[in-house]
Design goal:
The structure is a homodimer. Chain A has 13 helices and 16 strands. With about 375 residues, chain A is an alpha+beta fold. Among the domains of chain A are: about 1-155 and about 280-320, Bira Bifunctional Protein, Domain 2 (BirA Bifunctional Protein, domain 2, 2-Layer Sandwich); about 325-380, no CATH class. Chain A has a nine-stranded mixed β-sheet with strand order 1-5-6-12-11-10-7-9-8, with helices on both faces. In chain A, strand 10 and strand 11 form a beta hairpin. The radius of gyration of chain A is 26 Å and the shape is elongated. The two termini of chain A are about 40 Å apart.
């Protein structure tokens, strides 16, 4: 076999891409830190029960399992970091007030999310725990827009949704869990014939409202439409009020609504959002409220946050790679060593030409070299 | 079950430790970059055959295996990054000249290396490919000393060894592979009775030389001793000459010799080294030559490098954690927003007090707050 072959949807990150990812990773983490978010790094491996919050069938299928030699128990490699951060907030930090956390680390997926997606995304995200108000959602969506701007990505659209609308409708329709699952699947696929068949026996106005959801995307007229279809439903009215308040506070951002986009529905509990940018059909970042996730770890806390795949962001970003390096000769001359140290301290990359290999500067990315001129070491262009 | 329990030797990294790791990670990677090393990030997952270089039985036992749903083949989670970087140099970059690479990423081990070691080290390291001369070893050991200094760790000792001495002796002793393995094990354990029994049938001067190896640590008198015991052996003489040249070039560093310390013997091919620092009995960093590793990937290249566990380095380092944050009120006042933006741009962490949670500043790590004073937003100490 050819030992250098990699598994499907698994790639090496080579120097140019690695430098761009590293630079953006730092800018984004610095941005989080500047907003008071504290970094945590949960482990790659956990007991599989800890990684899978209740009802997360999809996450289960995407999680690699292996056996722990030390305990004989089944371990999982995390496919998502958010449940781990919720565990840290609920159990380890155990603070009473608002806790802002962020992270940047790899996850692994048994299969890729799309034809182009890697099975090893570099998940970066931020979360607010301990605040149930809309202000936390406002802060987190503003932070998301800021974070995407750091990548020089122009966010073309931030779609807002609210899981409360779908939940309120299916509660009134009196469906069992399996029926809700099938209905949810049809809605995600925007499969209108199936949706119509499934809702056939449901009484009005819920039937019409469920059938209308796939078309409920666009401006604030979408919210008016829902309120017209479902009058006097406190839950629906509250969700619509949240969305209106959110949109008003996010003036200046390209906000619109999509009430049928319920990705992550299983763990979300309120406002949800998805950010889109130019030249990319799929959402570049996803987020929303997930107030109940901490419960399985002993403490339900209000929570809202977002995450994205930093590798995908870098692929879409225009940000450049590394600057050229400087080649310096192998020499004990103290004046040279002083100049090399000065250049390195100033942020330059200075590679020493090891004896016998002075000619490989081009492939090593050097565009200047240090030469001695009138007893002074000076920079000279290489080409 | 208690879902927040983590597997043995697997830990969360909480905010204070995460901030220290992140800060040191950046300093070390910047140091590598300044020396002309280019970053690469190989994948966490590969076909298991690619991860295991020939004869790496120990690495095999430490590598978690799982099944790829897409191919039905066995995958491994890397337990070491060096073989992956050798694959990238040999196959992907495919440069003719000197190639300097560095990396910082997680590995997983099925069992921990010692009682205190984690099963999820954060391996950071640097490698030079394509240069067979001692100059590359000199550069890499100087870089290691620089890198440890960035952590404010005082390197108490850098032990130099050379796999060529042991190889030359066992070649002359005419042992089969199994016998060499047992002998190697006894030497690593400094198990003198077993060593004496195993070497009983070996003729002089090899017998005495093998028996003397466990005591061959200390200053340059160790090298004299080996040459006295084994005269006229070209391989041993060449190894000793390498070690002398290396020690001379590393003047200023606390260099000593240990000729029996052969960790990584299976993949090393020449000079080996181990760095020690105060308050830690085990080596903090290991490295050496491994000229043949690229062969299984299609191209044997001279190679030398080192690596260490950044989490362990941070545990030993005195470097402090994060500075305190600034608390700012939730307000639309443009003057406040301007001041918050200014402070964030200056590197400060400014957390907004979300409505109703103004009292949780202490647990969030705030030590100052912004207050309005004579129409100006100013900083005030919190305590």
């Amino acid at each position: 076999m050819r030992r250098w072959l990699l598994p499907e949807a698994i790639e090496d990150i080579l120097p140019n891409e690695a430098a761009r990812i590293e630079a953006l990773r730092r800018r984004m983490l610095d941005g989080f830190r500047g907003h008071g978010y504290e970094m945590v790094t949960p482990p790659l491996l956990e007991y599989v029960e800890s990684l899978l919050t209740d009802g997360a069938h999809d996450l289960d299928l995407r999680t690699f399992k292996l056996v722990d030699q030390l305990s004989g128990r089944t371990l999982g490699i995390r496919a998502d970091i958010t449940p781990q951060v919720a565990r840290i907030d609920a159990h380890l930090l155990n603070r009473a007030g608002v806790t802002r956390l962020c992270y940047c680390a790899n996850v692994l997926h048994t299969r890729s999310d799309s034809l182009t997606a890697t099975r090893e995304p570099l998940q970066i995200g931020a979360e607010i725990y301990g605040h149930a108000g809309i202000e936390a959602d406002i802060e987190i969506i503003r932070l998301l827009a800021n974070t995407l701007a750091l990548a020089d990505l122009s966010t073309t659209r931030i779609d807002l949704g609210h899981v409360g609308i779908f939940r309120a409708l299916v509660n009134r329709a009196d469906l069992d869990d399996d029926q809700v699952e099938v209905l949810f699947g049809a809605l995600q696929a925007k499969d209108v014939p199936t949706l119509n068949a499934l809702t056939d026996g449901i009484s009005e106005p819920v039937r019409s409202a469920l059938r209308a959801l796939p078309d409920c995307y666009g401006g604030s007229e979408v919210l008016d439409k829902v309120l017209t279809l479902v009058k006097d439903d406190a839950e629906v009215a509250a969700a619509v009020a949240d969305l209106r308040q959110l949109a008003a506070a996010l003036a200046g951002l390209p906000v619109s609504f999509d009430l049928a986009d319920l990705r992550g529905y299983h763990y979300h509990s309120g406002v949800m959002f998805a950010a889109y940018c130019a030249r990319h059909p799929n959402a570049i970042a996803l987020g929303g409220r997930y107030d109940n996730m901490g419960k399985v770890f002993g403490r339900a806390r209000p929570a809202t946050g977002f995450s994205m795949d930093l590798r995908e962001v870098v692929r879409l970003s225009e940000n450049g790679g590394e600057a050229g390096k400087i080649l310096a000769p192998w020499s004990d001359d103290p004046a040279l060593q002083q100049e090399v140290a000065r250049l390195r301290a100033a942020g330059e990359a200075v590679a020493i030409a090891l004896p016998g290999h002075d000619d490989s500067w081009r492939e090593a990315g050097c565009d200047r070299r240090l030469v001695k001129h009138d007893a002074q070491w000076i920079l000279e262009a290489l080409n």
